[in-house]
């Protein structure tokens, strides 16, 4: 499983074909044109495989990682959402967070919305944070000896955000299911421990930041 995903646009994605897709296909329900009342243009950020490999070999890649949560009426975190995905080997199901690359000329807010919509569906209705200050920065290396965060493809700098989900989630793309776990559940620590290559540490830090752990 790619710990930091979001490289290749699905057919119909709003930013496919050099950021000029969005014909109403099922891969691009959010932002198939522009933000309501805005003259926003989607970023022209996709690269061919050889271009992406060249850049990855020479510079860190910017990413966002999103910890989806449900909150109560007072804004306190009640549940954490994790994505269930089949591993690259296709043999086991692993847990992951919403994550993906920041496109060239793309605002962080748009990037977060794009990846949340891709993984959780167009009806997830995320409430984006007021500030773009991340609760942590995770540095992924292609060598497991370099630290807790690992991505075999690249050196990546991931800005991590807690995002409240107010709508209904639908598993999409490589996601089998979206599972919500109460932060008061006895299973929460077990779920954190199951998440590979540093994502569990990001969840733990998010819950600590939210005053839960």
Automatic annotation (TrEMBL):
<feature type="compositionally biased region" description="Gly residues">
    <location>
        <begin position="19"/>
        <end position="31"/>
    </location>
</feature>
<dbReference type="InterPro" id="IPR032582">
    <property type="entry name" value="DUF4916"/>
</dbReference>
<protein>
    <submittedName>
        <fullName>ADP-ribose pyrophosphatase</fullName>
    </submittedName>
</protein>
<feature type="region of interest" description="Disordered">
    <location>
        <begin position="1"/>
        <end position="38"/>
    </location>
</feature>
<dbReference type="Pfam" id="PF16262">
    <property type="entry name" value="DUF4916"/>
</dbReference>
């Amino acid at each position: 499983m790619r710990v930091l995903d979001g490289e290749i646009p699905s057919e119909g994605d709003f930013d496919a074909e050099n950021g000029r897709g969005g014909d109403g296909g099922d891969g691009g329900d959010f932002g198939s044109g522009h933000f309501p009342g805005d003259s926003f243009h989607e970023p022209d950020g996709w690269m061919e495989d050889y271009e992406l490999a060249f850049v990855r070999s020479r510079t860190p890649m910017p990413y966002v990682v999103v910890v989806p949560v449900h909150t109560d009426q007072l804004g306190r975190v009640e549940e954490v959402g994790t994505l269930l995905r089949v591993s690259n080997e296709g043999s086991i199901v692993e847990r992951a967070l919403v994550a993906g690359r920041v496109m060239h000329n793309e605002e962080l807010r748009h990037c977060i919305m794009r990846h949340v919509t891709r993984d959780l569906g167009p009806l997830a209705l995320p409430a984006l944070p007021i500030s773009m200050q991340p609760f942590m920065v995770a540095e992924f290396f292609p060598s497991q000896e370099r630290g807790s965060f690992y991505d075999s493809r690249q050196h990546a700098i991931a800005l991590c955000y807690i995002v409240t989900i107010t709508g209904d989630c639908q598993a999409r793309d490589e996601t089998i299911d979206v599972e919500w776990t109460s932060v008061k559940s006895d299973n929460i620590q077990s779920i954190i421990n199951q998440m590979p290559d540093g994502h569990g540490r990001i969840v733990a830090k998010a819950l600590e930041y939210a005053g839960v752990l």
